[in-house]
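Data card: per-record layout.
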Amino acid sequence: MNTEKDYFQNVLDTVARVENEVSKHMIGQKDLIRQVIISMFAGGNVLLEGMPGLGKTRLVNVLGKVMGLKFSRIQFTPDLMPADVTGTNLVDRKESGEGMFRFQHGPIFSNIVLADEINRATPKTQSAMLQAMQEHTVTVSNTTYKMPSPFFVLATQNPIEMEGTYPLPEAQMDRFLFKLNVPFPDFDDMKGIVQLTTTRSEDTIEAVTDADEIIEIQNASKQIPIAEPVLDYAIRLIMATHPNDESSPDIVKKYVRYGSSPRGAQAIISTSKIRAILCGRYNVSFEDIQNVAYPSLRHRIFLNFDAISDEIVQDDIIEGLINEVKTYQ
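The structure for this 329-residue chain is written out next.
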């Protein structure tokens, strides 16, 4: 009979195989790949923000194949309707001529859904994603349909081209476990990308896990212990994002309009456990909390006009929080 340590070692081996296989088909972006994997094994959705051509769509496609999951892509445009996402009821005719309704599933019924340029859809269509992202269900004509399990939404948006876009509302931003900034590649990575895509055929992508094992890892991660001082530190970080809290640092009081919701704390704790597994540990450290604080909070902190005029961004606020909030109270 396997011991608990052996079991978690198997979990670590599986997550490492996923990371290694994805890295074979993506040049550079190692930190980005790890953060996306952390979010997915924590069971959350990811918002990827970066310029066109940086491999956001490719990363999601590769992840789907490596994890052995069903993958679908939705290109969001201003004329996209909610039924184009969720599906709709169609009328089928029997041989007798009698009509009956049949639900035609939309592309959202997949394990991994790539919501490409999600901010190009109208608010009505964006809202069609809310129920699926939070509750993993879709309601059409008073009937609720369950999503396949596991289920992830990986959305992309372009931070440069703002014409014809509709900024995501705060409620929808909060449904993303992580917001990840996709960096531009450096010289060596750019050279590797060009060589990979223009000089030879791409190697076959190998599936190294499946849906059942991913669900098992998601459940196993919840058993990773977290010491009370580490948990308290994560909670104090969240409390300090609110400018009206007495513990918040000066940078928050000066530049933040609204702080993180409780989902920010849930995101930090759940993803720090996966990061601990990836680092070969069976407990969460203060460093795990600090590492996942950036992608967990950068879309949950809303800045005021002073921050915009002083060119302060969310990552500056999070850095200030980590510097000011002590690990022990």
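Known properties of this structure: The domain at 224-329 is CATH 1.10.8.80 (Helicase, Ruva Protein; domain 3). The mean pLDDT is 87.

See the next section for split statistics.
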